Amino acid sequence: WGLIPLAQLYIDIGQYDKAKELLEKSLKGHQKKFGDTHDKTISVYHPLGLAYAHLGLYDKALDCFVKSQESFVKHYGVEHIDYAIFLKDFGLFYVLTGDYEQAETMLNQALTILEKAHHIERYRCLEYLGDLYGKKYKALQIQRNPGSSDHVVPKACLNQANVYFQQALQIIQGVFPKDSFHIARIQSKKKYLITA
Asked: What's the CA gap between 151 and 137, in Å, rounded?
């Protein structure tokens, strides 16, 4: 059980290989002690799916998220904060895989639930939506005909990404210290978009 919080910390600081290793070890221990379908075993799949997604192991990540989703709905319902946090992470999976429509649906659903509770994690939904529109912008830039003067759609994506990043910053600037990793990460994403 103690491995899961440590693995989550590794995910938060971008050390996905270490998180994966701890979570796979935790999953084996949970399976041995509780079996494959016990709630404690299922609880490992959510963070493990997130680690797999960040490592580009999308088939494994999807399998983990699907196993987790049924348990979250069963235990919490679809309006609970814990389900919203799960949806946020599942939405990020879809951002990483390039399924922007599914990602946006899940992230907006999570954001709606988190906003009702005024929960701090809504900043991550907004950050991930910013990531989504940043990726859309870059994809449209690549697809655009070099001689074309059509900048409207890519520019709209760029603007929307910046709006989401700014909203995320507004939420956390009053909560985290100015030199917080979270603030610095979002500010760097905004700067990167400006130079892209």
From this structure: 10
